[in-house]
Amino acid sequence: MIRRFVASLLAVAVVRPDHLNDSEIAGFLDRDLSADERSSVESHLESCASCRSAILEVSRMADSYQTASDSSQPFPGSPRRRRGVQLRFVVAAAAGLAIVWLGNVRNNPQTTPTRSVNTIAADSRPVVEIVNPPENAFANRSGLTFVWRSAATSVYRFTLLDETGQTVMDREVSDTVLVLPQDTRLAPGHLYFWRVDAIGDGIAASSGARKLRFAW
Amino acid sequence: MASAIPPTVESLLAAADEAARDTAWTEFLKRYSGLILHVARSTRGDHDSVMDRYLFVLEALRKNECRRVRAYSNSGRGAFSTWLVAVTRRLCIDEHRRRFGRTSAKGPTVEQVDRRALDALSGDESAPLDSLESALARPDSELQITERNAALRAALLRLDVSDRLLLRLRYEDSLKVNEIARLLGEQSQFKVYRRLDQILATLRHELELVGIRDSDA
Does the predicted TM-score (pTM) go above 0.80? Predict the structure, then answer.
C-alpha cells in the first residue's frame, strides 16, 4: 500500500513545459505573490521536482549568506529575514572580497579582466597609509608588526584574508600598530591579503587590499 | 513593479550615461558582490571555477545596460536580494553547463523515498524497519492492488494542491519539517506537523470509506 501511495503521488504529476522564473521564486520565498500567483506557483512546485530543488537551493543560499554575514552585512529588504546588522562593515566585506578576487584575476592568466572588474577596484575613500610590511612582502610571521599612519579616527579594523577571501583574522584596534598574534593559523608560502579600515561614520579611510606571504 | 527597489539599484538603473553607470555599478558591487560571491561559492568547483562563475555573473548582470536588473524593477517579486540569489544561482548553473555540459541531478533514491513514506504512513516514525518491510512483503492480490491504487489516487487528487506540495516536500524530497516551515512561510514547524497529521488522517479516512484500512496493507 505504501509503495502504491508513493507511486500514486508521483503519477499525479503533470509537469508544465516551462519552469518558475527567478521572480516567481523570490516572490514565493518572500511571500510577495498574490493568492492566484501563489496558488499557480504551488501547483507547479507540486508537480516539478526541478523547481522544488531550485527554490530550496535559493532559500538555503539566502539563509546561509545571512548567517555567514549576520554581523557584517544585511540581507536587505527581505521581509521574512532578520536584519541585525552593523552597517559599517558592509562596505568592508564587499570591497574586501572584490579586491581579493581582483588579485586572483591578476594572478590567473586564464581569466580576462573586464571593465566591470576595474570598477570594483575603484575606491575614492581616503587612504590609510601603510608603513609596514611593504606590499608583496615575504615576511617572517614571528613578531610581525603591522604599522600604519593615523587617519584621524579612534578605531581601526584590521583584516587578514587568505587567498580564497576567507577571513583569517579580524581585529579592531585603537592604535596604529598591530602585532600578529602567535596563534594565527597560517600556511607558509601561501598568498594572503590584508587591509586596514579606519572606522568613523562608516569606513572613513582604507588601505585597500595588500598582499603578503609568510615564511615559516 | 517590484515592491521595494533598493536605492543602490535605483541609482544603477537611473544612470544617464556611461560614467554615471560606472559609478553606480561600483556602489552596486560594494553592496552585493559578497552575496554574489557567496552563491558562486555554494556551487561546485575549485577556487578558479568559483571566480570564473563570479565574473560571468557580473558580466551578465552588467550586460545590455543591466537588462536583467531592469527586468526586476519592472516586474520582479520578492526582495531584491532574494531575487539576486535566484538569478546568480541560475547564471552559475548556466556558466557551469556552458563549460562542462549538463549533468544529471541526484535526488533521493527510490528506496529512500519509499522508506520515508513507509515510516510516515505506518503512523509510527520510530517503528522498526524490519516489521515495516515484512508488512510490505505481504502478498497482495491484483484486485486489491488495483483498488488501493485507484482509491489513493482519487484521495490524493481531492487534496488541496498545497497539501500535495507538503507531502512532496516531506516524503519525496525528504526535507526536514523546520525547513518546510521556512519554505512555506508557516509560523512554526509544529504547524507543519499538524498539517501533515491532518493530511495523512484525511487519506486514511478516505481509504477507510472505500473499505481499505492500514491493517490491510
Answer: no
Q: What is the model's pLDDT at position B128?
A: 35
Query: Cis link prior to A74 (omega < 30° from 0)?
Result: no
Give the tens place of pLDDT for each residue, A129-174: 888 888 888 888 777 889 888 887 788 889 898 877 778 888 888 8
From the list B172, B13, B73, B86, the residue with the least C-alpha distance to A30 is B86
Where would I find the beta strands (DSSP E) of chain A?
A: 130-132, 137-140, 145-148, 155-162, 167-173, 177-179, 191-200, 202-206, 210-215
Residues from chain A that touch B203, judged by Cβ atoms under 8 A, are 5
Chain B contact set for A62 (CB, 8 A): 81-82, 85
Mean pLDDT for chain B overall? 78
Residues A87 and A24: their CA atoms lie apart, in Å, by 29
**Which residue's entry shows cell 572584490?**
A98
> SS3 for A26?
helix
Q: How crowded is residue A1: how many other Cβ atoms within 10 Å of its Cβ? A: 22
Q: Per DSSP, what are the bridge partners of residue A192?
A: A162, A212
Q: Say if the Cβ atoms of A119 and B167 lie within 8 Å.
A: no
Range B167-170, long-range pairs (CB < 8 A, 24+ positions): B167/A9, B167/B196, B167/B199, B168/A9, B168/A45, B168/A46, B168/A52, B169/A52, B170/B116, B170/B120, B170/B196
Would you say the ipTM is above 0.95? no
Q: What is the mean pLDDT of residues A49-61?
A: 93
Which chain B residues touch A69 with a CB distance below 8 Å?
Answer: 34, 38
Asked if the model's pLDDT at residue B107 lies above 80, the reply is no
Q: Shortest CB distance from A42 goes to which of B30, B152, B161?
A: B161
